[in-house]
Amino acid sequence: MRGLGGDATALRKLNTARVLRVLHRAAAVTLTELTKATDLSRSAVEGAVEELLSAGLAAEAEPVSGGTRPLGRPARRFRFRTDAGHVLGLHVGPHKVYAVLADLHGEIVGGKRVELTPDLPGPERLVRVRRTAQQCLQAAGVTKDDLWALAVGTPGLVGRTGKISLCSVLDGWTGLDVAGELGAHFPCPVLVENDANTAAMGERWRGAARDVDDVVFVLADHKLGVGVVINGRVHRGSHGAAGELGALPHSPWAAANDFMVKSEHDPARVFADPRAAAEVTAFIEDLANGIATMALAVDPELVVLGGVIADCGPALLERLTARVSDLCLIPPRLLLSELIDDAVALGALRVALDAAEKRLFAI
Prior knowledge:
The protein is of the alpha/beta class. Helix content is 40%, strand content 21%. The radius of gyration is 24 Å and the shape is globular.
């Protein structure tokens, strides 16, 4: 109380946030259980629960059938309303827009995928992005006003305001204020992030890097990109350009990217061709040197290989692991992506969910 300067309103908000956090984690709890979990008085818990019920963030759970209470009604139980709001994650790439919708617990309740052509002009691509998002919401019976946050994973350098600073793979994408344009149509926070960064977050949330705090994610899609997670947070750098080592001429990443272009972004097909053995060996050497460069700079616990190179399977992983081990002082573990084509969209969904939870628990 002294820390809050005796402000009863601030104290009530603090109590409500504490109760909400417990409800958010639990399936359903009684007032007695909430009192014990929050270390608050029963009257404070009751007041917080009533406030959350009025705000539509909590609901009374169905009574448990049976039980051991011999007399009277069973104790009232309360739950967090996961459907009190929704979040939307979008993957915008050269060939598609992929939208994923989830409730406030991150449970997916809808999705929509639309194929595009790489030469689609930037403004038209943005129209398709908006339309895909709207169709995803409509199919799930969710309105724009139900959205608490929307996040986009996209190729290119993304400024802190959600404007694309530079993009070499989407026509007319450079300079577009993606966050501002989408924000004019969706009345919720709109966040925009580089696709490799969102893929790294998706893999950490629901893929091969679950709960690993220091991760490098190598995304091979339209080109080779790298997302870096340090201490559980994406490392963007001052201008959103962290991990863009392919921009350096004659770098291992640039050479590996040349292989991707020559293989028409289908390295698995080239790996299966015995006549391409020399090209495959050179690619593995370039990729290993690029990964080793990142590993020596960042010292990650894990490197995840995603995008189309994950289709190359264990044969790539085994050879690449052996070569990276030779190049690093303390080699990281290497794993193939578990999310494959869903990594960017799920990572964007995680970004949106983080923004929603920040609002949810704000005091």
